[in-house]
Predict the structure.
Amino acid sequence: MLQKSSLGLEHLSSEELRNCLLRSHRECEELRQQVQRGVKLKAAVSSATQRARQIKSVDACFVFDCTYSMRHQIETAKQKIGAIQKFILAYLGEGCYVRFGMVGYRDYADDPKFDILPFTSDIEQVVQFMAAVQTANTGNGDDCEDVIGGLQKAVDMDWQASSRIVYLVCDSPSHGSRFHDCAIYAKRKESYDSH
């Protein structure tokens, strides 16, 4: 047990000491309750922020053609993608949670066939990814590309937001007769879709 003299309280009577300890106990209890309310408030704010993010959350994936035929348009496509990203961020305003994903696709024989950036909210990471994307060095002898392969890669990404958007940027359709009229090209004796 502590002595009054060891606490520097020897000048207090027993009644004064008891009142002092009661006040200290009440103050400690009040402080504990304030801390507890603060923790509850912090948890409530965190929960509300999470709900707001879910409501104002967007996952936007850009699926874009990186084949040889896009070699003259790829820089313009990159600029347009950047402008769309800025518009989305400005439109949703403060408190939004936006993630961007990227899928650059090529054709069956190209290597690499895909360039993929998983969803991220880090715009600088998106900018760096876009700067590094290059078109294929040569064409494959037909106009069609692996659009469906690019879209499948986008579908397989980690979608989480309440609003989900896919932007397709391309200059040619996918392989397969259901995506274009092969008869037109057969009459012209052109190799439109050799796969």
